[in-house]
């Protein structure tokens, strides 16, 4: 597989959609908007805009190395290494579970105040040609905490009102689409999730707020700096399209 950090493509002309959150000699952390792929992928072979290109533009045109995954419809904190050595060290920390990731999600229903979802997940290959083949099942653990709840006077399913919750999610493993699949597993799917969510609720939010985005945002990443060991916390509040929907909780 081609290393995405070595693609010769340059960022398209126009405004850079990435917002710098942190930068030093080893790291570049940005806020990625929803709808932007991190790098070229079989998911959409015709896409020409990638976060990797724009991150390079912020790095004076030099290579950057993505150290973790952030799905196309998910917005939030995205960290790049500025050299291969740093990328290797942080990649190992990711594999060892030494990087703490925090997300916000708006889900259907009212989950318990807090909980742990310990539910193994089967690998989901990006290459569609492999989807018919048996894939390994791997351990997957997500902790969650309910931050707010609301009940709207709209009948979407068989009840006269509809309940929603704002959750803080902390994945302890990094399986593909882990948060989306785990929330579906406990019957509290993320609003706007076309693959694992509930279509009626997704359509209601799309019509009410004028956009049908996935309501999942990476809001914080915490780890030891690979150069000197100091603790680094990189945070970003959700982008406006997410905050607009958060208004239903009257926070």
Automatic annotation (TrEMBL):
Signal sequence segment: none
This enzyme's EC code(s): 5.4.99.26
Annotated GO MF terms: RNA binding; tRNA pseudouridine(65) synthase activity
Class of enzymatic activity (EC top level): isomerase
Domain Pseudouridine synthase RsuA/RluA-like: 27-185
Family annotation (Pfam families): PseudoU_synth_2
Reaction catalysed by this enzyme: uridine(65) in tRNA = pseudouridine(65) in tRNA
Gene3D superfamilies per record: Pseudouridine synthase (3.30.2350.10)
Keywords: Isomerase, tRNA processing
TM helices/strands, residue ranges: none
GO biological-process terms attached to the record: enzyme-directed rRNA pseudouridine synthesis; tRNA processing
Xref: InterPro entries: PsdUridine_synth_cat_dom_sf (IPR020103), PsdUridine_synth_RluA-like_CS (IPR006224), PsdUridine_synth_RsuA/RluA (IPR006145), RluA_PseudoU_synthase (IPR050188)
Domain of life from the UniProt record: Bacteria
Function of the molecule: Responsible for synthesis of pseudouridine from uracil-65 in transfer RNAs.
Name of the molecule in the record: tRNA pseudouridine synthase C
């Amino acid at each position: 597989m081609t290393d995405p950090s070595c693609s010769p493509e340059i960022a398209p002309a126009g405004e850079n959609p990435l917002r710098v959150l942190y930068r030093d000699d080893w790291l570049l952390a940005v806020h990625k908007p929803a709808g932007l792929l991190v790098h070229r992928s079989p998911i959409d072979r015709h896409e020409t805009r990638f976060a990797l290109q724009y991150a390079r533009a912020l790095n004076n045109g030099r290579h950057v190395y993505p150290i973790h995954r952030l799905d196309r419809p998910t917005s939030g904190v995205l960290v790049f290494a500025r050299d291969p050595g740093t990328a290797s060290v942080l990649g190992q920390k990711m594999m060892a579970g030494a990087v703490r990731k925090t997300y916000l999600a708006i889900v259907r229903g009212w989950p318990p105040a807090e909980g742990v979802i310990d539910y193994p997940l089967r690998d989901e290959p990006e290459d569609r040609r492999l989807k018919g083949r048996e894939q390994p099942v791997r351990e997957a653990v997500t902790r969650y905490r309910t931050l707010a709840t609301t009940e709207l006077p709209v009948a979407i399913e068989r009840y006269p009102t509809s309940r929603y919750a704002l959750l803080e999610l902390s994945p302890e493993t990094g399986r593909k689409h882990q948060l989306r699949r785990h929330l579906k597993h406990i019957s509290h799917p993320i609003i706007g999730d076309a693959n694992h969510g509930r279509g009626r609720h997704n359509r209601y939010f799309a019509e009410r707020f004028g956009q049908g985005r996935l309501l999942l945002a990476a809001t914080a990443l915490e780890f030891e700096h690979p150069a000197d060991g100091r603790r680094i916390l990189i945070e970003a509040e959700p982008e406006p399209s997410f905050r607009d929907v958060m208004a239903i909780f009257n926070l």
